[in-house]
Amino acid sequence: MRVKICGITNLEQGNAIAQLGATELGFICVPASPRYLEVSAIKTIIQQLPQQVNTIGVFANLDLNAIVTIVSETGLTGVQLHGNESPEFCQQLRTLLSPQVELIKALRIKTNASLAKVIDYAQSVNTLLLDAYDPQLLGGTGHTLNWKELTQWTSPLPWFLAGGLTPDNILVALSQLQPHGIDLSSGVELAPGNKDLNKVTQLFHQLDSIKGKSSSFI
Ligand SMILES: O=C(O)c1ccccc1NCC(=O)[C@H](O)[C@H](O)COP(=O)(O)O
């Protein structure tokens, strides 16, 4: 299963988290976020990370050309769109990005109606990410989704489960759902942008404890 740790702000923590087993590190390119990182800093970190770890830039409502420029300047391996980007916007971005760059659409699920909209993105992105809704914050909210309701849902694409996941609740979430990946930020932090390596270690211990047991995704 893919494990994305989001909101990396420095090389030491990025390296340590990659060593612990993260498959993706997320970098927040949204200036309003306390986890925001300048493009030049992202580039410097990516150049020194092990090659096997994927590096995902998280954007919200930024224009197409700016995203493409940041990807080419930094060497990000993926783009996560976390704002109100339409399926048409995603389609356009898909054609502008190299095919090797993964395009992930994050959807903040407020009601079942938000879940119904997911299908609109099936042709325009590679991967989906379901996150919790908050009226003020776009992401990193620490709120969980209603996992029980999600059991009724079938994804048209590979997907990440996000929203309020922690080392303490991850096994409960994965006992109900079989996402292709999980995404954590505030649940493994000491403070916004400062990851708690003990919590990241605990997370991987929890995941190890169910490896090979419950489903083919883990
Ligand atoms: O994390 C942020 O500060 C952020 C700000 C603006 C847009 C997206 C943001 N985060 C996106 C992520 O992928 C987070 O990992 C996701 O929202 C889950 O966060 P959490 O509930 O804290 O685990």
TrEMBL record:
<keyword id="KW-0057">Aromatic amino acid biosynthesis</keyword>
<feature type="domain" description="N-(5'phosphoribosyl) anthranilate isomerase (PRAI)">
    <location>
        <begin position="3"/>
        <end position="205"/>
    </location>
</feature>
<protein>
    <recommendedName>
        <fullName>N-(5'-phosphoribosyl)anthranilate isomerase</fullName>
        <ecNumber>5.3.1.24</ecNumber>
    </recommendedName>
</protein>
<dbReference type="GO" id="GO:0000162">
    <property type="term" value="P:L-tryptophan biosynthetic process"/>
</dbReference>
<keyword id="KW-0822">Tryptophan biosynthesis</keyword>
<dbReference type="InterPro" id="IPR011060">
    <property type="entry name" value="RibuloseP-bd_barrel"/>
</dbReference>
<comment type="similarity">
    <text>Belongs to the TrpF family.</text>
</comment>
<dbReference type="InterPro" id="IPR001240">
    <property type="entry name" value="PRAI_dom"/>
</dbReference>
<dbReference type="InterPro" id="IPR044643">
    <property type="entry name" value="TrpF_fam"/>
</dbReference>
<dbReference type="InterPro" id="IPR013785">
    <property type="entry name" value="Aldolase_TIM"/>
</dbReference>
<keyword id="KW-0028">Amino-acid biosynthesis</keyword>
<keyword id="KW-0413">Isomerase</keyword>
<dbReference type="Pfam" id="PF00697">
    <property type="entry name" value="PRAI"/>
</dbReference>
<dbReference type="GO" id="GO:0004640">
    <property type="term" value="F:phosphoribosylanthranilate isomerase activity"/>
</dbReference>
<comment type="pathway">
    <text>Amino-acid biosynthesis; L-tryptophan biosynthesis; L-tryptophan from chorismate: step 3/5.</text>
</comment>
